[in-house]
């Protein structure tokens, strides 16, 4: 039976800014909504003031305001929490097995949503309780400024805005400083901090590797479907024109007035302006801004040698955008010749006949139709990142999550579907519990991924029960997590060298079809 305690003798920690009290649930001390910094709009985060009395840390803090109020949909694919929003959102959550002197590994989670959406509690599986208990680890999840609040370059308008284009990343560094200064009191080891994040959260890990101010605040990194490529490309150039257009749209007199204008009005103005800027290829914000603080995408500007000794675990899932596009579902009943013909109809005979043999070699257990579900958006820049990064060290590791899920028949894994497995939280979501082929066990997969993550957090190597070599520039050794997991050596490189040129137009067609379907 799960036990709960909340009283004056339980779950109390003395932080550097004052005492906080959480609660004890099933042997895990839980603290929610702890402020790690404060900030004026567009300015660098500052230390919080010492609070008087005891801080109640039993409720999640505000999350960053979003640019749009999207209707709930797709909840079976990616189940969400919706939470009150406010700019006072610099807070974090902690799960720990013990408030003692034990120095447990610390895992700090950065949420997805690119750099403009999401929150530390958005996905139901972001809950750190199971990870803390099963891994005997301290888990921290972080909220920070997003979109134009966190990534709007105003540096042309004065030194006080010198790094407004990276204010959200500055917040993450403030959170890591909080971890450094306080986590020992929560039973964690400040000298063993692993950053991990998915999608935009993974991009935040790669961004911090290129940010000198973050050096020394973390010791390992896990990048899940988050290598910065075209999808998460840097916001290059000056933000002057964007700022001036905002002032014009809002009828405001000067930049300082943007600090106090109602956020909802600023967001509306930005949404109206952004399409024209994007069409022109001009700076549109909402992404990290290369400058003296953030040195830019390492595959463009080079990797910092100062981070060479940081072990990295980098990977993605087979069908990243399966859930976003109107792809045919549940067609396992078709024969192989029928599937091959369907691929030829979709891509054209020449492209299909070129790619299908390479696809079969890379994915011998998959059916021909799965070629139409293959991710190229994340995987291609990831291959380049791994090749360049592994030239610096001998502790860069690669993985691919390839286990189909029982959604609409059996569906290739989609963007975010692996998150519950890494967090040891498949009990919180529905889709892993559908009918699976004989011998395929979601619980076994959860145990395998979780064991790899925890091994990496403790030692910097994800190897558990089978050899998992580190990558080199010539050889990418990829752990392919599937019903029968295996390590592949450059297993899909021939395929990925050609796939973008033949699949891109197909995905563009699907995206346009998806847009038309939403409009109607």
In short:
With 520 residues, the protein is of the alpha/beta class. It has helices at 129-135, 147-150, 167-182, 200-209, 240-250, 263-280, 298-301, 336-347, 349-362, 379-390, 419-422, 442-459, 493-519; strands at residues 4-5, 12-15, 18-21, 23-25, 28-35, 55-56, 91-96, 104-110, 138-142, 188-198, 220-224, 312-317, 396-401, 477-481, 486-489.
Q: How are strands sequenced across the largest beta sheet?
A: 1-4-5-7-9-8-10-11-12-13-14-15
Global Rg? 23 Å
CATH homologous superfamily designation of the largest domain: Alpha/Beta hydrolase fold, catalytic domain
Q: Kindly report the average pLDDT value.
A: 94
CATH-level-2 architecture of the largest domain: 3-Layer(aba) Sandwich
Q: Would you tell me the structural class of the helices and strands?
A: alpha/beta
Helical content band: 25-40%
CATH class of the largest domain: Alpha Beta
Beta content comes to 15-25%
> What about the largest sheet?
12 strands, mixed
- Tell me the number of strands: 15
């Amino acid at each position: 039976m799960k036990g709960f305690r909340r009283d004056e003798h339980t779950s109390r920690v003395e932080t550097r800014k004052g005492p906080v009290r959480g609660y004890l649930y099933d042997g895990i001390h839980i603290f929610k909504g702890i402020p790690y910094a404060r900030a004026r709009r567009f300015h660098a985060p500052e230390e919080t003031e010492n609070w008087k009395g005891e801080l109640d840390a039993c409720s999640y803090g505000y999350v960053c305001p979003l640019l749009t109020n999207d209707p709930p949909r797709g909840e079976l694919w990616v189940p969400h929490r919706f939470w009150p929003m406010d700019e006072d959102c610099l807070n974090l959550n902690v799960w720990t097995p013990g408030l003692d002197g034990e120095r447990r590994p610390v895992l700090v989670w950065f949420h997805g949503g690119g750099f403009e959406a999401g929150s530390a509690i958005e996905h139901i599986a972001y809950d750190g309780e199971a990870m803390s208990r099963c891994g005997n680890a301290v888990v921290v999840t972080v909220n920070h400024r997003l979109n134009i609040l966190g990534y709007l370059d105003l540096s042309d308008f004065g030194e006080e805005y010198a790094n407004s284009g990276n204010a959200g990343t500055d917040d993450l560094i403030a959170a890591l400083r909080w971890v450094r200064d306080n986590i020992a009191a929560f039973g964690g080891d400040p000298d063993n901090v692993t950053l991990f994040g998915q999608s935009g959260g993974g991009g935040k890990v790669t961004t911090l590797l290129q940010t000198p101010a973050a050096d020394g605040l973390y010791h390992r990194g896990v990048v899940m479907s988050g290598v910065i490529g075209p999808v998460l490309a840097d916001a290059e150039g000056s933000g002057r024109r964007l700022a001036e257009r905002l002032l014009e749209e809002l009828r405001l007199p000067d930049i300082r007035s943007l600090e106090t204008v109602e956020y909802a009005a600023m967001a509306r103005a930005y949404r109206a302006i952004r399409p024209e800027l994007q069409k022109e290829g001009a700076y549109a914000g909402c992404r990290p801004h290369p400058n003296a603080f953030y040195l830019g995408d390492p595959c463009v500007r080079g990797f910092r040698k100062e981070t060479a000794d940081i072990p990295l675990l980098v990977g993605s899932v087979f069908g990243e955008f399966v859930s976003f596009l109107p792809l045919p579902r549940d067609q396992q009943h078709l024969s192989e010749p029928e599937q091959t013909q369907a691929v030829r109809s979709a891509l054209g005979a020449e492209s299909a006949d070129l790619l299908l043999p390479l696809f079969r070699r890379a994915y011998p257990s998959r059916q021909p139709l799965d070629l139409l579900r293959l991710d190229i958006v994340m995987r291609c820049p990831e291959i380049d990142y791994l090749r360049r990064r592994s030239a610096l060290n001998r502790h860069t590791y690669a993985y691919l999550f390839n286990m189909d899920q029982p959604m609409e028949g059996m569906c290739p894994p989609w963007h975010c579907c692996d998150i519950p497995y890494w967090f040891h939280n498949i009990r919180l979501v529905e889709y892993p519990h559908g009918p699976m082929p004989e011998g395929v066990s979601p619980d076994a997969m959860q145990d395998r991924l979780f064991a790899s993550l925890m091994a990496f957090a403790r030692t910097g190597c994800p190897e558990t029960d089978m050899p998992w070599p580190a990558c080199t520039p010539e050889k990418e050794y990829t752990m392919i997590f599937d019903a029968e997991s295996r390590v592949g050596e450059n297993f899909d490189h021939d395929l990925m060298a050609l796939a973008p040129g033949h699949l891109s137009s197909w995905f563009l067609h699907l995206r346009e079809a998806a847009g038309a379907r939403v409009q109607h």
